[in-house]
């Protein structure tokens, strides 16, 4: 327990200047007062270790009604204490009592849980090294409750739980003593106390005085600086400084300056520090939860900002002096008669701060807090925060944390005329971070400290950052127009949009279809998009459409925000709104929802979760909306291009890229047209194939004559020019990235690739799936398995967060199960011990009753004899009594001493028995844990054996397939020496020739032999691996059995030791009984001697001896009974505690299993994917309608069983639609579906604003299509291109921003569509080198 006055030496901060009352560097040895208050020590008396001589209070009646003071005289076994009680006036009573430990309380314990500090005498401030004329005293402290825990303690008490209906709270305490109250700093008192100090010589006091002298303050919060928000955040910083300068004001920031906790990005930190160099106004900051790193919050990301800039002091005494501008408060701090409270995670500590005298005395509060009843967003109301009733009433309270600007109002005294109103105003973020914040009025506030910190001005922040608009109708969309410039100043209103803004209009599907004919809508959306505004048209199903059975109607229309625009916590809440009453009852759903929220918050708080789910958490924070325009690609030494070839890619319309191979063989194959078309993909992702892999696996890209491949892509990213250049040699890969004239190249290609993906806002797989469609990739989505299709959708709808939450839930469940098993084992051992102890106690109880009955009989006999003896000889001479009994008396005393010795020996033996058995029990627990570890290793080895066996069977299947393919017998495990390939190629069914063609016999023979040899080698390797895995299983099983046997041996050793010590105790007790019998014998001898002197005295002595023996026997029985009773009570409590712990672990196991299911593929992952599947089907069907003239339908849905179903329907002659398996579709029907699904997927990516590229590459998209089908594909591509430069009428046909569609076709298909192309380019290969002929007339 900390003393009431604690003087602590505070180390300087990282930059040598105070962050929490830290002294400046040249005063680093100064001592500062850390205020603390008295604390109660009676919360858990079981932790008090009293000693003999301690003064305690005794609860006489065990109900708290009569407390008597006493002094501990002896500490006995089983939790019993012997006390000497004091009289009412404080004197000694000389009365000794025996009480249990539970009846004792420290005599100095305070009975109140709330302590008032003496503000005049208890707290004194000693500034030893400041030039003081006299010590400064009477620095006000605070009033706190003792339920709070230390900020830096790893174990925090559970916060008080408050409901909205009352102000009562209940606190759950643990077994630890209450921690000291939190530190609070009163800087106003420090400034008042420093009146006689030469303040101008102390920089810290100068800084405090300067900041305290500022009257007006511009306040903002929740900036959330991150790579995706950096540009917007810097604009906010510049605007705040500009507004503060204009008003001669300071700046207050209320937390969450950074977004990612734990690690600061160097580029973000440097940009912020550079921006702050321009500042000239003072600033006060408190850290929010995103800024903090440690549990107590004292280590945070605001520390590097403390010396970011300096301001000039204009006071007369310090004119021209510069001081640090930022002042960071990491502890609750009072300055300017306002209390600044950083984020405090422990609610009990937060409540103690808010209820302190310091908080009650301030005119205003500035906090970063979660308040019960506040809106986390438009959907969720906080239920687990600080209750509003805890805050002081009738004063301004401003808070950060939640992004929606709103006010929480609470009336404390609703039934009285004396209204005490609590108003907590959330200022909200200064810019919109997601669609969920659309139409929120973002603003800064200006406060006047001289007017009680009241708001005197609100400054709208409508022109910084991306704005989101959700018009409720088409008419509202048409009312939106681009911001105009008046006198070179942008004018922003609720109906104006600017470049980078986002508009999302949700309409019934049938209304969306009519938009193609709406010229006004087409012109308006085209103008908005040309101005850089993202316009998204979303389809929603009406109830009428669902009843009509429209195949595209797969979801109900809701006015709420779409799932993809919600935060993880909001999505989790929306999921449970649907689940209640479905798969879960209300109580179970509420419990799982709350547990899931805690788990998600835990993931957010943990550093690992922050790094693993950063993309998910940043998705709702100004997620990057990428408009990617590719201008050109230049290749050199790449594939068949030995010399530099530059190829234009922007604004070329529908381009045919054909090839001519003048080196013989095929007319166009091998010319390099696909290589050129996909070169940009390789430059941007490191993959030459449309499906990206790591760069190190790229092969066959180096030209034979130039072993230095180089591909450069130029273009514009959201209007900013960029250049990406990738180079590769046989031993090295290089990657350079320039954006907007800035070199962003890092020290490795991998790190540069990460920068490219970050700036693009999308991953390499999305680039490949939306822009570059190879002839094999066109079928991948339609052919994809359920798992593969979900993997593709996860590129658009990130599932990493939910998968990570499920993994964490399963991990917690396994931990709980393991703990339960351990507890059950311990419980079984303790239960067995308790049964044995209970039997011993029952025998001791019966023995005690028998001894008491014997004593009663002896006392009756002695009383009767005494009465008879008095009647018989009342006149005996007393002078002659006992003179001949001295020697017997001395012998009897020695025998009694021997009895006491034996009693002590018995006690020592019992203590030794308990100590030995305790050590053995510890070893037994270790053996059991080792056995459990061995079992886990066995399970792991079994899994590896199953994996090896599966690999073996797979390779056997591969060998069988090779036997069938190449018609060869491989059963002996070797390739026959007389093996010859079939005359017909098993791959393409063409005859094998010897004319040097690609189907030449020698080439195929060599290919087949290599493939067979490789597979056989893999099979042999798998057999070896299987044998090794089998041996590992056997070794693990032997280890497990050995450990189990060792545990059994330890258990048997324990029984042997118990028997051995029981024998020692029994022998000692027998010796004790023997010594007592000796005492009885001496007593009888003494009586016999007395009989020889006087017959009457002898009889009386005999009775007294018998009575003494009976009393000793009763005392011994009572002591044994008491000891066993204490041990039994302790053991019963331990058993009950173990049972409760095991029950709690069972509950946690069940809860974690439920959370695992809810976070799993059949839970929320299915829930969040449903919208994506619905949108994908709607968009794909739109293209399929045009590809098939409405004759085909492709229905997709995500059923409750977690499977994405794909159903093909074909129109019959009578106009009805009949379902057909996908495998039975004709080649043309299949191609139409695959093309529609591919374009629908890319359109979905663009619709959700992730990527709107200017280029689409299609390699052989017309395969299997007839003339009409090829013509329909051409029309659709022209529709997509009709949106560029205001041409055509395809303004709402898709969400693409495509200006070039590059088609790679064979000659026959190209000739049929030649007139439809805007440009026809040709790649020519001659003498082993390729070059390109660009259609100059139209490009």
UniProtKB/TrEMBL annotation:
Domain Calcineurin-like phosphoesterase, chain residue ranges per copy: 218-298
Keyword flag Coiled coil: yes
Alphabetic keyword roster: Coiled coil
Superkingdom as given in the UniProt entry: Eukaryota
Stretches for region Disordered: 88-121, 144-183, 602-623, 863-884
Pfam family, one: Metallophos
A single GO BP: double-strand break repair
Coiled-coil regions listed: 931-958, 1026-1148
InterPro entries in the cross-refs: Calcineurin-like_PHP, Metallo-depent_PP-like, P-loop_NTPase
Composition skew (Low complexity), residue ranges: 144-175, 609-622
GO MF annotation: an example: ATP hydrolysis activity
Full protein name: Calcineurin-like phosphoesterase domain-containing protein
Organism ancestry: Eukaryota, Sar, Stramenopiles, Ochrophyta, Bacillariophyta
């Amino acid at each position: 327990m900390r003393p009431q006055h604690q003087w602590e030496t505070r180390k300087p901060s990282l930059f040598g200047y105070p962050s929490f009352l830290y002294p400046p560097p040249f005063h680093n040895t100064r001592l500062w007062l850390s205020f603390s208050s008295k604390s109660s020590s009676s919360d858990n008396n079981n932790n008090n270790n009293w000693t003999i001589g301690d003064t305690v209070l005794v609860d006489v009646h065990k109900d708290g009604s009569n407390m008597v003071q006493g002094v501990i005289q002896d500490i006995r076994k089983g939790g019993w204490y012997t006390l000497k009680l004091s009289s009412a006036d404080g004197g000694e009573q000389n009365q000794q009592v025996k009480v249990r430990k539970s009846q004792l309380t420290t005599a100095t314990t305070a009975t109140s849980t709330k302590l008032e500090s003496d503000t005049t005498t208890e707290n004194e401030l000693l500034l030893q090294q400041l030039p003081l004329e006299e010590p400064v005293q009477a620095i006000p402290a605070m009033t706190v409750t003792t339920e709070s825990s230390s900020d830096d303690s790893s174990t925090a008490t559970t916060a008080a739980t408050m409901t909205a209906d009352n102000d009562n709270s209940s606190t759950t305490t643990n077994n630890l003593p209450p921690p000291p109250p939190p530190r609070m700093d009163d800087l106003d008192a420090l400034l008042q106390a420093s009146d006689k100090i030469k303040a101008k010589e102390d920089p810290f006091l100068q800084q405090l005085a300067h900041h305290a002298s500022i009257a007006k303050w511009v306040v903002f919060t929740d900036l959330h600086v991150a790579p995706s928000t950096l540009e917007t955040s810097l604009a906010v910083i510049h605007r705040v400084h500009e507004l503060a300068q204009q008003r001669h004001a300071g700046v207050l920031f209320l937390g969450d300056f950074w977004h990612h906790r734990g690690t600061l990005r160097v580029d973000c930190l440097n940009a912020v520090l550079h921006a702050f160099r321009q500042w000239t106004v003072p600033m006060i900051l408190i850290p929010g939860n995103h800024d903090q790193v440690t549990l107590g919050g004292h280590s945070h990301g605001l520390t590097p900002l403390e010396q970011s800039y300096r301001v000039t002091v204009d006071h007369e005494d310090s004119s021209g002096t510069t001081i640090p501008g930022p002042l960071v408060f990491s502890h609750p701090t009072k300055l300017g008669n306002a209390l600044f409270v950083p984020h405090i995670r422990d609610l009990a500590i937060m409540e103690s701060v808010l209820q302190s005298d310091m908080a009650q005395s301030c005119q205003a509060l500035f906090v970063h807090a979660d308040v019960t009843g506040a809106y986390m967003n438009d959907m969720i109301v906080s239920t687990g925060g600080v209750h509003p009733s805890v805050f002081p009433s009738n004063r301004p309270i401003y808070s950060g944390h939640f992004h929606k600007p709103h006010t929480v109002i609470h009336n404390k005294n609703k039934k009285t005329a004396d209204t005490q109103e609590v108003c907590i105003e959330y200022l909200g973020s200064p810019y919109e971070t997601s669609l969920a914040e659309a139409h929120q009025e973002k603003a800064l506030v200006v406060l006047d400290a001289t007017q009680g910190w009241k708001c005197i001005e609100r400054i709208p922040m409508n022109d910084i950052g991306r704005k989101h608009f959700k018009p409720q109708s088409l008419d509202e969309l048409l009312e939106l127009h681009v911001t105009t410039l008046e006198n070179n100043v942008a004018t922003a209103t609720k109906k104006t949009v600017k470049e980078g803004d986002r508009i999302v209009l949700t309409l019934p599907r049938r209304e969306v279809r009519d938009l193609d004919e709406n010229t006004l809508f087409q012109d308006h959306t085209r103008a908005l998009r040309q101005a850089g505004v993202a316009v998204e048209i979303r389809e929603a199903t009406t109830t009428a459409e669902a009843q009509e059975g429209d195949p595209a109607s797969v979801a109900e229309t809701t006015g709420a925000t779409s799932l993809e625009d919600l935060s993880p916590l909001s999505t989790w809440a929306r999921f449970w709104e649907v689940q209640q009453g479905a798969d879960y009852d209300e109580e179970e759903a509420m419990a799982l929802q709350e547990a899931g929220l805690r788990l998600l918050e835990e993931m957010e708080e943990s550093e690992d979760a922050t790094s693993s789910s950063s993309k998910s958490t940043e998705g709702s924070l100004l997620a990057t909306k990428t408009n990617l325009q590719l201008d050109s690609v230049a290749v050199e030494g790449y594939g068949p291009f030995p010399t530099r070839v530059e190829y234009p890619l922007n604004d070329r319309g529908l381009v045919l890229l054909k090839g001519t191979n003048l080196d013989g063989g095929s007319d166009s194959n091998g010319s390099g047209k696909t290589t050129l078309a996909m070169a940009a993909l390789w430059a941007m992702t490191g993959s030459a194939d449309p499906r990206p892999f790591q760069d190190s696996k790229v092969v066959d890209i180096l030209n034979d004559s130039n072993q230095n491949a180089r591909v450069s892509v130029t273009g514009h990213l959201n209007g900013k020019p960029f250049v990406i250049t990738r180079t590769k040699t046989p031993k090295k890969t290089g990657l350079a990235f320039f954006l907007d004239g800035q070199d962003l190249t890092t020290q490795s290609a991998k790190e540069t690739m990460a920068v490219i993906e970050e700036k693009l806002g999308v991953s390499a797989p999305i680039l490949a799936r939306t822009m570059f469609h190879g002839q094999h990739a066109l079928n991948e989505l339609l052919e994809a398995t359920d798992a593969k299709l979900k993997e593709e959708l996860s590129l658009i709808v990130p599932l990493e967060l939910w998968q990570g939450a499920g993994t964490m839930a399963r991990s917690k469940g396994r931990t709980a199960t393991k703990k339960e098993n351990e507890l059950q084992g311990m419980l079984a051992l303790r239960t067995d011990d308790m049964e044995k102890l209970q039997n011993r106690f029952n025998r001791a109880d019966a023995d005690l009753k028998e001894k008491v009955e014997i004593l009663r009989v002896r006392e009756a006999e002695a009383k009767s004899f005494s009465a008879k003896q008095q009647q018989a000889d009342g006149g005996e001479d007393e002078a002659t009594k006992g003179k001949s009994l001295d020697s017997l008396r001395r012998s009897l005393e020695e025998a009694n001493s021997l009895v006491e010795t034996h009693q002590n020996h018995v006690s020592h033996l019992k203590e030794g028995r308990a100590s030995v058995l305790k050590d053995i029990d510890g070893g037994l627990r270790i053996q059991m844990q080792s056995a459990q570890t061995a079992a886990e290793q066995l399970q792991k080895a079994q899994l590896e054996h199953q994996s090896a066996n599966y690999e073996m069977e797979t390779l056997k299947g591969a060998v069988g397939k090779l036997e069938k393919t190449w018609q060869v017998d491989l059963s002996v495990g070797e390739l026959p020496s007389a093996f010859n390939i079939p005359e017909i190629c098993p791959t393409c069914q063409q005859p094998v020739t010897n004319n040097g063609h690609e189907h030449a016999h020698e080439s195929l023979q060599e290919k087949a032999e290599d493939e067979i040899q490789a597979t056989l080698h893999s099979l042999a390797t798998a057999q070896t691996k299987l044998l090794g895995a089998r041996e590992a299983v056997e070794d693990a099983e032997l280890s497990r059995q050995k450990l189990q046997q060792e545990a059994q041996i330890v258990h048997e050793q324990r029984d042997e030791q118990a028997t051995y010590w029981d024998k020692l105790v029994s022998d000692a007790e027998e010796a004790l009984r023997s010594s007592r019998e000796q005492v009885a014998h001496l007593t009888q001898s003494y009586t016999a001697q007395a009989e020889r002197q006087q017959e009457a005295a002898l009889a009386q002595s005999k009775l007294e001896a018998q009575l003494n023996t009976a009393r000793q026997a009763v005392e011994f029985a009572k002591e044994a009974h008491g000891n066993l009773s204490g041990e039994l009570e302790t053991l019963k409590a331990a058993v009950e505690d173990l049972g409760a712990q095991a029950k709690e672990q069972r509950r946690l196991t069940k809860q974690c299993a439920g959370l695992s299911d809810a976070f799993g593929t059949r839970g929320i992952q299915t829930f969040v994917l449903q919208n994506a599947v619905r949108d994908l089907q709607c968009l794909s069907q739109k293209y399929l309608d045009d590809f098939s003239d409405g004759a085909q339908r492709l229905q997709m849905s995500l059923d409750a069983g977690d499977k994405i179903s794909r159903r093909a329907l074909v129109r019959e002659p009578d106009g009805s639609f009949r379902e057909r398996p996908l495998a039975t579709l004709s080649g043309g029907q299949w191609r139409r579906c695959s093309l529609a699904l591919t374009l629908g997927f890319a359109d979905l990516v663009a619709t959700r604003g992730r990527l709107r590229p200017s280029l689409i590459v299609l390699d052989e998209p017309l395969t299997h299509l007839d003339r009409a089908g090829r013509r329909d594909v051409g029309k659709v591509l022209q529709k997509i291109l009709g949106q560029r430069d205001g041409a055509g009428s395809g303004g709402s046909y898709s969400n693409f921003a495509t200006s070039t569609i590059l088609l790679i076709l064979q000659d026959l298909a190209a000739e049929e569509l030649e007139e439809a192309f805007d440009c026809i380019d040709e790649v020519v290969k001659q003498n082993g080198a390729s070059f390109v002929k660009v259609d100059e007339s139209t490009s």
